[in-house]
Amino acid sequence: MNLKTAFPDASNQMVTLVREGPLFILTMKTGENRFNTKFIEALFGALDEIEKVREQEDGEPAALITTGEGKFFSNGLDLEHAITTPGFFDDYYLKLLVRILTFPIPTVAAINGHAFAGGFMLALAHDYRVMRNDRGYLCMNEVDIPSPLHPGMAAIVRIKMTPKTYRDCILQAHRFAAKEALEKELVDVLASESELLGKAKELGLKWSGKAKAGAIYGSLKQEMYVEGVNYMSVKNWKYAKL
C-alpha cells in the first residue's frame, strides 16, 4: 500500500508520513518541533495511520523512521503551553513517549540536529538512533531550568544509558556531540547530513523483518521497558519551574 499523508492536513503540514516499501518515514516539520497539543495530535494521527495499515498487513516487514528538518530534531516541550494546559502530560506528551517506546514495529530516530530535553526523550524512546555527525547535541537540561523530571521520563533515560552517562546527563546537563554519543552508546550510527536518512533507512530495513512478530513485538517492548511504562502512568504531575 502506497502512502503519502500530511497531518493535521495538507494545508497545515506539521507532520508528513511517506511509505517506502516496508518503511514508514515520519518527518516533523514545525521548525524546532516543540511539543504542544496540536503538534502531538498530528504525531498521533501519523501513528494511527501506520497502525491502520499494519492491521491490513500484519506479519509483513515494517519499520518506522522519525526525523526532523534543518538544525533541529526537536527542541523539547513548548514549556509555557505544557505548564498552563491541563492534562498535557497525562493525555499528550507522556502518552506519546509510551506509544513510541512500545510501538509494535522497529523504530529508528534519524537525529538531524539538536535533540534537547523532551526532544532527546523522543529519540531515546526509539529502538535505534542514527545521528548527524557534524551538527547537533543530545541534552537533558532540566537542572539548568531548573525543573524536576517526571518519573517515567527519568526511567526512560535511566533504562537507555549507563549509570555514569545517566549521572552526567541529568546532573550536569551534559551536551553529547555525535562522536561522544556514539562512544556512550546513545546512538547506533553516525552519518553526514546527506547520508543521514539513507543510513536510517538501511537500519530500518535491516530490522524490519522483526515486525513479522506482529503484536508480540510491542509486547516484548512492554516487558523490556516495564519500569518506564509503569512510571509513565503517574498522573497529575506538573512540569513547573521550582
Structural account:
The protein has about 240 residues and is of the alpha/beta class. The protein has one domain: 2-enoyl-CoA Hydratase, Chain A, domain 1 (Alpha-Beta Complex). The protein has 10 helices and 10 strands. Strands 1-2-3-4-6-8-10 form a 7-stranded mixed β-sheet, with helices on both faces. The longest helix is centred in the N-terminal third of the chain and has 20 residues. About 45% of the residues are buried. The model has no long low-confidence stretch (mean pLDDT about 95). InterPro entries: ClpP/crotonase-like_dom_sf, Enoyl-CoA_hydra/iso. One of its GO terms (molecular function) is delta(3)-delta(2)-enoyl-CoA isomerase activity. It catalyses: a (3Z)-enoyl-CoA = a 4-saturated (2E)-enoyl-CoA; a (3E)-enoyl-CoA = a 4-saturated (2E)-enoyl-CoA. This is ClpP/crotonase. Pfam families: ECH_1.
